[in-house]
Write the structure tokens for this entry.
Amino acid sequence: VSHSMHTLLYLCISVERMEWPASSPDLNPIEHLWDQLRRAVRARVTNTTTLADLRQMLVEEWDAIPQQCVTRLVTSMRRRCQAVVAYVWFFHTLLRLLFVK
């Protein structure tokens, strides 16, 4: 096994850390709001939509997102983080079973 593989295994098995991928839209509540905004605006856009119309639509649709939706996304962070931790725990356990003698 290469030196880098030993290092990787050491880090995976011995170092406690919380995985937080650099690009992790599922863990970023704003990404869900951007998606909701995109879908709402896309439903309104036509071939004759101007840039000024688009700006107005964005403002209107952003204002139309209920505070309850934002609150629900923020309060879901605990569950989302717990899911990541559980996944990492499972992955580390699997690595231990496969590679540690």
